[in-house]
Write a structure and sequence with these properties.
Blueprint: H1 9-23, H2 84-87, H3 98-121, H4 126-134, E1 143-148, E2 151-159, E3 163-169, E4 174-179
Helix pairs in contact: 3-4
Length: about 200
């Protein structure tokens, strides 16, 4: 068998090919573009949402301008070297959008209606809260209730996608929010660690 050696040719071609591949993307930034921003080669018609833009619409019983399921919090600008937000981002739950948002609002309404008789009676026993929520059809293993100061806190995994309902029944009102779980974690419990 005869072996053909390419003296010096093979070694120099690999780095040259890598440099050529990396250089092909250079020079595509246009005036007015933000550095590092993705620019689609195809224009997106106005009025159409892109995959990265979640959309909402009014849910049954809601006014035409939908309100978010969780209060919007202004982003905190950390001090240089402070990585708290970055290191704890896995604890920030997902907001709900579209049809799932409507399902979340409906679940919150059902939970509040089920707990209202207990609240009016002054029944702030966690086990009674849990029984009322299980009575809505949620599996026993997916409903948690606990003493929370002068009220009762609760967490319900209403849907395995997940659709979570969390809140507190207090003397003056029952507060509840729906959310879509957490990054890097299954279920509705606040994760204890992320990556």
């Amino acid at each position: 068998m005869r072996v053909i050696k390419l003296a010096g040719f093979g070694r120099g071609m690999v780095p040259l090919a890598v440099v050529a591949a990396l250089a092909t993307g250079c020079g595509t930034q246009r005036a007015g573009d933000v550095a590092g921003a993705y620019r689609s080669p195809h224009p997106v018609p106005s009025g159409i949402s892109t995959p990265g833009t979640p959309t909402n619409f009014p849910c049954p019983g809601e006014t035409p301008t939908p309100t978010p399921t969780r209060p919007t919090v202004a982003p905190v600008t950390p001090a240089p070297g402070d990585h708290y937000a970055e290191n704890n981002g896995f604890k920030v739950p997902f907001d709900l959008y579209g049809r799932q948002r409507c399902e979340g609002l409906a679940a919150v309404s059902r939970v509040r209606n089920a707990l209202e008789p207990l609240r009016k009676r002054g029944d702030f026993v966690p086990e009674d809260t849990r029984k009322a929520l299980v009575g809505l059809g949620y599996p026993e293993g997916k409903v948690r209730s606990y003493q929370d100061g002068t009220g009762v806190g609760f967490l319900v995994e209403a849907d395995p996608s997940p659709l979570c309902v969390e809140g507190t029944m207090l003397r003056d009102a029952t507060r509840a929010d729906a959310f879509g779980g957490y990054p890097d974690h299954d279920g509705c419990e606040v994760p204890s660690g992320g990556h």
